[in-house]
């Protein structure tokens, strides 16, 4: 990583940290999802940064990948457990960070993922296997009597790429890739009262382009024109300014030019918390970019 990359990661990280903090103060019962996501996404633009992915707002048993749709009439409700996951980038250099806001009485669930993240960060240094990070997460969450979500992971970051190797597990496992100085990745423990395994819901609002391929369908072409500028970064349905966006997206899915990211949920009625930071491995530990 050269100095310019390093500085960009530090800058995108500090902006993400500031905006996520602000976001936390805006989540209140009665607040509309749609107004909330638009407010936060506008703050990112005002800072001169890009969105690395649409603001994720996932409630209760939904762990990840929900966001407001264009005519979303949902509002935050008393007792909701609200995960807010923010990704910003500066010239493609990404900061990925998340927090959970508790509108009910779930303090220990939030503490579990928060302490797991801190414990994981303390474990990071060159030479350890990623499985050690998972062990730190699993142990911290287990102490609170909850489960980590085993089929969601942290991930490396690349320029204009949110999900790069290595995967950073949320449970202990032997071996795995060895950390090296200069690696950049996100650690994101999820604590749950449910099964510890998420599955896909039918709701899907977030997509990304996965292939360059000429498309003939006129609706698909219109959508392609709008998503090209994302350079492969995820985008959402509500961001497409075209009245037949749904038809275009469906055509692009059939052609396998884009993929969807369905909402990922634990068992109905369960509650999930998440905390996430982005960090750079140093010679004797790490620098957290998103504090
Ligand atoms: Mn994230
Ligand atoms: Mn992430």
Descriptive terms for the model:
binds manganese (II) ion; Creatine Amidinohydrolase; alpha+beta; 291 residues; 5-stranded antiparallel sheet; 3-stranded antiparallel sheet
Notes on the protein architecture:
With 291 residues, the protein is α+β, with helices and mostly antiparallel strands. The chain folds into 2 domains: 222 residues, Creatine Amidinohydrolase, CATH 3.90.230; 56 residues, Arc Repressor Mutant, subunit A. 31% of the residues lie in helices and 27% in strands. The chain has 6 helices and 17 strands. It has a 5-stranded antiparallel beta sheet. Helix 1 runs antiparallel to helix 2, helix 3 packs antiparallel against helix 4 and helix 5 packs across helix 6. The longest helix has 24 residues. The relative contact order is 0.19. Bound molecules: manganese (II) ion (2 copies). One manganese (II) ion (MN) binds next to loops.
């Amino acid at each position: 990583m050269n100095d310019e990359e390093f500085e960009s990661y530090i800058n995108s990280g500090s902006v993400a940290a500031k905006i996520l903090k602000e976001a936390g103060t805006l989540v209140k019962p009665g607040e509309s999802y749609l107004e909330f996501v638009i407010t936060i996404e506008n703050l990112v633009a005002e800072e001169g940064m890009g969105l690395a992915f649409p603001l994720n707002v996932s409630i209760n048993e939904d762990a990840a990948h929900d966001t407001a749709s264009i005519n979303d009439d949902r509002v935050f409700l008393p007792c909701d457990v609200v995960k807010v996951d923010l990704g910003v980038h500066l010239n493609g250099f990404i900061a990925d960070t998340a927090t959970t806001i508790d509108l009910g009485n779930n303090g220990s669930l939030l503490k579990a993922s928060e302490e797991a993240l801190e414990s994981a960060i303390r474990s990071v240094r060159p030479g350890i296997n990623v499985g050690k990070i998972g062990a730190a997460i699993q142990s911290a969450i287990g102490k609170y009597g909850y489960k980590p979500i085993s089929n969601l992971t942290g991930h490396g970051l690349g320029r204009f790429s949110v999900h790069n190797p290595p995967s950073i597990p949320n449970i202990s496992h032997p071996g795995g890739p060895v950390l090296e100085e200069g690696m950049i990745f996100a650690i994101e423990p999820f604590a749950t009262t449910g099964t510890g395994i998420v599955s896909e819901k039918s709701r899907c609002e977030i997509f990304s382009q996965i292939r360059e391929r000429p498309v003939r369908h006129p609706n698909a072409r219109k959508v392609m024109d709008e998503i090209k500028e994302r350079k492969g970064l995820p985008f959402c349905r509500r961001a497409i300014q075209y009245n037949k966006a749904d038809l275009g997206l469906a055509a692009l899915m059939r052609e396998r030019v884009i993929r969807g990211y369905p909402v990922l949920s634990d068992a109905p009625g369960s509650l999930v918390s998440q905390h996430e930071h982005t960090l750079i491995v140093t010679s004797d530990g790490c620098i957290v970019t998103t504090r």
